[in-house]
Amino acid sequence: MTQLITEREAADQLLAADNILLLAHQYPDGDTVGSNYALCLALRAMGKQVRVLCGDPIPERFDYITEGVEMPDFEPDFICAVDVADPTLLGPAVEAQYGSRVDLCIDHHSTNVGYAAATCVDATCAAVAMVVRRLIALLGIDLTPAIAACIYTGIATDSGCFKYLNADATAHRMAADCIEAGAPYDMINRVNFDIKSRARIELERLALEGMEFHHHGRVAVMPITNEMIAHSGATENDLEGMTPIPRQIEGVWVGITLRQKADGNYKISVRTGTHVDATAICTLLGGGGHVRAAGCTVEGTLAEAKAAILAATEQAIPRIVTS
Amino acid sequence: MTQLITEREAADQLLAADNILLLAHQYPDGDTVGSNYALCLALRAMGKQVRVLCGDPIPERFDYITEGVEMPDFEPDFICAVDVADPTLLGPAVEAQYGSRVDLCIDHHSTNVGYAAATCVDATCAAVAMVVRRLIALLGIDLTPAIAACIYTGIATDSGCFKYLNADATAHRMAADCIEAGAPYDMINRVNFDIKSRARIELERLALEGMEFHHHGRVAVMPITNEMIAHSGATENDLEGMTPIPRQIEGVWVGITLRQKADGNYKISVRTGTHVDATAICTLLGGGGHVRAAGCTVEGTLAEAKAAILAATEQAIPRIVTS
Q1: Which of A193, A225, A242 is the last residue of a domain?
Q2: Other C-beta atoms within 10 Å of A303: how many?
Q3: Distance of CA A310 to the CA centre of its chain
Q4: Are A263 and A155 in the same domain?
Q5: Cβ separation of B197 and A164 shorter than 8 Å?
Q6: Chain B residue whose CA is closest to A274
Q7: Same domain, yes or no, for A50 and A116?
Q8: Within a domain: residue B65?
Q9: Are residues A269 and A294 located together in one domain of the fold?
Q10: Residues 239-258 of A with CB under 8 A from B
Q11: Mean pLDDT across the stretch A291-305?
Q12: Per-residue pLDDT for chain B (323 aa), expressed as one digit of tens each?
């Protein structure tokens, strides 16, 4: 059982520690990268030996965070995971080596499973970068332009560039502090929200071409097949952020993305607007998730996967079926 | 010649006035609608008779601002234009009736031509809604949820949901104040940044299908023909925000959109990244604009328009031509 601790207590643990290993989650996003690097830079400014470890390579778009920050190897005395709700999210190699001996976990997921000796979690924060920013203040370290860039990246990426419900007043005020401290927010926003690869553009075109509407446009189904992925030349990175597309169409209650996996089966993502429960649909096919975003996996051809998820949708949301 | 006045002086003019007509610009966007309605609500809270006039119908997506706000007709004693840099932007009918007798113009465009008796302009503001918010404070009126929704709309829409360079610390802090005052920012962001019509999705697909790359992918050309518009069923509203698409592609220096007009000729929009001057390209074809966004009109077929803008690009930016 983990001990739930305050930010002051977490800061005191970090103050007392040295030879610190920070752990990011696999498939690294802006929040886990930004938060780990921000904490690393702050702790190094105090003269501590610190490094960041991630189970996957950090995507190139975060070069502005990682460039010039050396990560020399050393035997850690203190292990701190940041933005990692469950040790399996470290990826198999990092989990095997460090998963059972994490001293401190800093997080913003209410679903944190409590695997670390001590856990400091604030689920009201849009990004764990907001928790980290407060910890850095408690450590007595100022926001440098580099740290501010890291914190801003976490807040902006986890809030869809301030578009989602979690972009509350606190998130905006903390972003303002980062901008004032010298975060190059214009470049960060361009890199994270503006630039798409040619492969991604082509994949979007193919996916839109394959989009189908059902039940008077209330259900939109978008396929992403291995053939489309191969034809477009899209990488895993290019596939990020495709699942919201069907739900963003006017009049759509249920947006469904069918993503073919390497084994040929389909990973299905369901996104819903107000008043429709995505989990109710996906649990019928053995999946789960949140009210507005859920998922499941279906075996079979595209036609079979489509039929299965449409049947589940009709069963879970009978009022979607109108004459 | 207009008199440039401070926000305090502008607030004093509004305090002294009654029977106030507020003017929005034609092709109304979130900033002109939000700012005019915010000022209208604040002045009405002081017991004044006020109405907002716009040369075009206000788009349905702003129903959350306009619904329930009656606009009874009356003979104005004081005319105030908000977010209108030039009287021609009022549209021909409103300009003819009121363009030469505007008492006060509240603006954030450095290019304001100074047509009003008095002008209160702050070009450092991302949105004129930020100027209006400060004026409302000077009038002694609190941010109600309805006023906060208007101000938030102006800031968010004029900053691309906090993505552009103008989304500075001040913009974020004022957005935070609006959220705290009860602006339904989640709904506002969904309406303005998330939902696309089916026609728009189809038009994007067709436009992406027609996209061409030149000069090793440094130049992207996207056509939007009348045939595509007709086939997709897109309205004028659906065409908004298409022009950034080609420039958002990785590696593209110059993003060109060729939009066919009703008369068959092409309105060309050029968007550029850092280090390429869009105006230098468009002035060669009789157009103009800003460094990163410029435009011109070309007569002829799609092939002719494409050839003309590509030749102008090569002439203006010779280093774009590589073997």
Answers
A1: A193
A2: 9
A3: 27
A4: no
A5: no
A6: B187
A7: yes
A8: yes
A9: yes
A10: 244, 248-251
A11: 92
A12: 899 999 999 999 999 999 999 999 998 999 999 999 999 999 999 999 999 999 999 988 899 999 999 999 999 999 999 999 999 999 999 999 999 999 999 999 888 999 999 999 999 999 999 999 999 999 999 999 999 999 999 999 999 999 988 999 999 999 999 999 999 999 999 999 988 899 999 999 999 999 999 999 999 999 999 999 999 999 887 888 899 899 999 989 999 999 999 899 999 999 998 778 999 999 999 988 778 888 899 999 999 999 999 999 999 999 888 75
Q: Give the best residue of B143, B151, B162 to mutate against chain A (max A CB count within 10 A).
A: B162
The tens digit of pLDDT for each residue in A188-232 reads 999 999 888 999 999 999 999 999 999 999 999 999 999 999 999
* Tokens linked to A201: 């553009």
Q: Which of residues 151-210 of B touch A (CB under 8 A)?
A: 156, 161-165, 167-170, 172-173, 175-177, 179-180, 185-186, 189, 193-198, 201-202, 204-205, 208-209
- B243 contacts in A (CB within 8 Å)? none
What pLDDT is stored for residue B273 in this prediction? 81
Tokens 């996906």 correspond to A282
Neighbours of A208 (CB within 10 A): 19
Are A124 and A174 in a shared domain?
yes
Q: How many domains does chain B have?
A: 2
Please indicate, yes or no, whether residues A144 and A284 belong to a single structural domain of this protein.
no
CATH number of the domain where residue A57 is located:
3.90.1640.10
Range of the domain at B229: 199-316
For residues A141 and A74, membership in a common domain is answered with yes
Chain-chain contact of B208 with A204 (C-beta, under 8 angstroms): yes
Q: A130, A157, A172: best mutation site toward chain B, by most B Cβ within 10 Å?
A: A172
A321 part of a folded domain: no
Q: Do A213 and A182 share a domain, yes or no?
A: no
**Residues B281, B288: Cα–Cα separation, whole Å:** 8
Q: What is the CATH number of the domain that holds A290?
A: 3.10.310.30
A261 touches A269 (CB < 8 A): no
Last residue of a domain, one of A140, A172, A193: A193
* Spatial CA neighbour of A113 closest among A121, A33, A97, A96: A121
Query: In A, which residues are within 8 Å of B211 by CB distance?
Result: 201
Q: Which residues of chain A make contact with B159, given a CB cutoff of 8 A? A: none
0.90 exceeded by the pTM?
A: no
Q: Are residues B107 and B211 in the same domain?
A: no
What CA–CA distance (Å, rounded) separates B28 from A251?
24
Radius of gyration of chain A (CA): 21
- Computed from CA positions of residues B76, B80, B86, B91, in that sequence, does the dihedral angle turn out positive or negative? negative
Q: Show the tokens assigned to B307.
A: 């050839």
pLDDT digits (tens, 9 = 90+) for A133-161: 999 999 999 999 999 999 999 999 999 99
The candidate with the shortest Cα–Cα distance to B33, out of B22, B20, B17, is: B22
Structure ipTM = 0.86
